[in-house]
Amino acid sequence: MIGRITGTLLEKNPPQILVDANGVGYEVDVPMSTFYNLPATGERVSLHTHLAVREDGHFLYGFATDEERTAFRQLLKISGIGARMALAVLSGLSVSDLAQAIALQEAGRLVKIPGIGKKTAERLLLELRDKLGKALPNAGGIRLAAGVDAAPDAKSDILNALLALGYNEREALGAMKGLGEDIGVSDGIRAALKLLSKA
């Protein structure tokens, strides 16, 4: 298995790049999140890689971070999700945004990605709900949203309740900033609603 490639970036033809590693040119498919952060052609590049061996050939996928590669591999484990669709997901959402969408079960964010319909989005959310957080302990998988840790279940329950009541994410998170760390769910919802009614 090829786990990493380091060499000179020869060509950039999204979503594919060509990397010269010791005289061998490797064609590597990358998500747009990685593509936008690539150096200029002729410069040195180092990527985490995933090698897929299929009947029609060997395909190398490259990622700027290990978290991106981990998310890609988790996506591939879902039936009906191939490499092309997994790349599309990571091109449309950063790993932390994907983790956040899964934590909040927001199908709407996934449906915006070309090729992802409502049913596929719901299946992704369902199948990745427990997997992505465990696979990415440091990549936003355990962060519901900016500044809200998912570790205390109360915080995620409060956030979900506020969203269900029709508040948008920005309003809900703003109200939650004023809550104490050890607050219970029902008290937290009451306190957040009080803050929102004043806004």
UniProtKB/TrEMBL annotation:
GO terms for cellular component: cytoplasm; Holliday junction helicase complex; Holliday junction resolvase complex. Keywords: Cytoplasm, DNA damage, DNA recombination, DNA repair, DNA-binding. The keyword Iron does not apply. Its main location: cytoplasm. GO terms for molecular function: ATP binding; four-way junction DNA binding; four-way junction helicase activity. Residues 152-199 are annotated as: Domain III. Belongs to the RuvA family. The RuvA-RuvB-RuvC complex processes Holliday junction (HJ) DNA during genetic recombination and DNA repair, while the RuvA-RuvB complex plays an important role in the rescue of blocked DNA replication forks via replication fork reversal (RFR). RuvA specifically binds to HJ cruciform DNA, conferring on it an open structure. The RuvB hexamer acts as an ATP-dependent pump, pulling dsDNA into and through the RuvAB complex. HJ branch migration allows RuvC to scan DNA until it finds its consensus sequence, where it cleaves and resolves the cruciform DNA. Has three domains with a flexible linker between the domains II and III and assumes an 'L' shape. Domain III is highly mobile and contacts RuvB. Homotetramer. Forms an RuvA(8)-RuvB(12)-Holliday junction (HJ) complex. HJ DNA is sandwiched between 2 RuvA tetramers; dsDNA enters through RuvA and exits via RuvB. An RuvB hexamer assembles on each DNA strand where it exits the tetramer. Each RuvB hexamer is contacted by two RuvA subunits (via domain III) on 2 adjacent RuvB subunits; this complex drives branch migration. In the full resolvosome a probable DNA-RuvA(4)-RuvB(12)-RuvC(2) complex forms which resolves the HJ. HAMAP family: DNA_HJ_migration_RuvA (MF_00031). This is Holliday junction branch migration complex subunit RuvA. The gene is ruvA.
